[in-house]
Amino acid sequence: MEAIRDLFFIAVVVVYIVDISCAVDSLKTALKWILTKGKMSSSDYILKPFDCSLCMIWWTGIIYLLCTGNFTLPYLVCVCLLSAFAGLIKTSILLIEDIITTIIQKIYKFLEYENNNL
Predict the structure, then answer these.
(1) I need a labelling partner for 49 at 20 to 30 A (CA). Which of 23, 38, 106, 107 fits?
(2) Spatial contact of 62 and 33, defined as CB atoms under 8 Å apart
(3) How far is it, in rounded angstroms, from Cα 73 to Cα 86?
(4) Cα separation of 45 and 57, whole Å?
(5) Would you kindly state where each structural domain of the chain is located, as residue ranges?
(6) 8 A C-beta contact, residue 60 and residue 15
(7) DSSP secondary structure letter of residue 85
């Protein structure tokens, strides 16, 4: 059960890094700049598996299972499902962010209303 929890956490971290933080785009820009000696610096190319959260969840999950000695069929299925749900994980992270933002905005509006009525 601990391995499934760890795989889930790995999936969330990978989705955040690849899809939300734009760290991979920065890496691709720097890599292209270095390889072309500063003549080109865009990130408009594919660098699989590093810019694909599905691929990265798959490979990091496999590496994790091999390193921890948990490479069994049920855990492999778990990695498959987590990688298949990469888009859903991204959407869930963004939804949680939107919910928290909405709550904070409502608190500000409430406090502003209270301050205006004093």
Answers:
(1) 38
(2) no
(3) 20
(4) 20
(5) 2-87
(6) no
(7) T
Beta carbons of 18 and 52 less than 8 angstroms apart:
yes
66's tokens = 């091999």
* pTM for the whole structure: 0.83
Cβ atoms of 57 and 82 closer than 8 Å = yes
Between CA 70 and CA 4 the distance in angstroms is 10
What's the rounded Cα separation, in Å, for the pair 105 and 33?
A: 41
CA distances, 114 to each of 13, 94, 101, 103 (Å): 40, 30, 20, 17
Query: pLDDT tens for residues 10-60?
Result: 999 999 999 999 888 888 888 888 888 888 767 777 878 888 999 999 999
Q: How many Å separate Cα 87 from the centre of its chain?
A: 9
